[in-house]
């Protein structure tokens, strides 16, 4: 339950009545301009990201789809009495495909060339260089700074 305010407090406060035009007239003038942050060029370029996405689709997407389809195929084989498949072998085969997809994900990211022109088909020569870039990204900023004086 609210307490009633005394008459002294309500009398001291005067209501200011503004018309709609006066109330919103200064709105644009009083707004503080927001400075947009500058984009840093430390991100992955679009052409490199597209190259990574294509490699990831083939090296990680296909094994992952196969890992999920193992359950479906195993179910169809068992329910139609074509063969008797133990559940442990279904899980083992599916886990193999999922692990292959995980390895493909890492390979797809690390094998992408950062040059404008696409690299070789497999991109194995880019893996050591991309590992060095990944290690440098996790170092503190003071270690990445090179004094050029």
Question: Which keywords apply here?
Answer:
149 residues, mainly alpha, 7 helices, flat
Task: Give the gist of this structure.
With 149 residues, the protein is mostly helical.
Classify the secondary structure makeup into a structural class: mainly alpha
Summarize the main sheet.
Answer: none
Q: Say how many strands there are.
A: 0
Q: What count of helical segments does DSSP give?
A: 7
For the termini, the CA-CA separation is 71 Å
Mean of pLDDT = 79
Overall radius of gyration: 31 Å
SSE order in H/E notation? HHHHHHH
Oligomer: single chain
Low-confidence stretches: none
Anisotropy-based shape: flat
The helical percent reads 55-70%
Bin the strand percentage.
under 5%
Task: Describe the fold and architecture.
It is a single chain. The longest helix is centred in the middle third of the chain and has 34 residues, at 46-79. With 149 residues, the chain is mostly helical. The chain has a domain at 46-139. 60% of the residues lie in helices and 0% in strands.
Topology of helices and strands:
Blueprint: H1 7-12, H2 20-25, H3 27-30, H4 46-79, H5 87-110, H6 127-138, H7 141-144
């Amino acid at each position: 339950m609210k307490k009633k305010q005394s008459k002294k407090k309500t009398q001291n406060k005067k209501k200011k009545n503004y018309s709609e035009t006066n109330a919103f007239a200064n709105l644009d003038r009083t707004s503080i301009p927001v400075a947009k942050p500058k984009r840093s060029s430390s991100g992955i370029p679009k052409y490199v990201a597209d190259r990574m996405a294509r490699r990831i689709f083939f090296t990680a997407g296909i094994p992952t789809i196969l890992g999920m389809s193992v359950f479906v195929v195993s179910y169809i084989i068992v329910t139609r009495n074509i063969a008797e498949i133990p559940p442990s072998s279904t899980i083992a085969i599916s886990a193999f495909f999922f692990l292959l997809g995980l390895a493909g994900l890492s390979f797809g990211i690390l094998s992408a060339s950062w040059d404008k022109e696409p690299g070789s088909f497999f991109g194995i020569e880019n893996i050591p260089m991309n590992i060095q870039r990944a290690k440098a990204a996790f170092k503190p900023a003071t270690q990445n700074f090179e004094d050029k004086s």
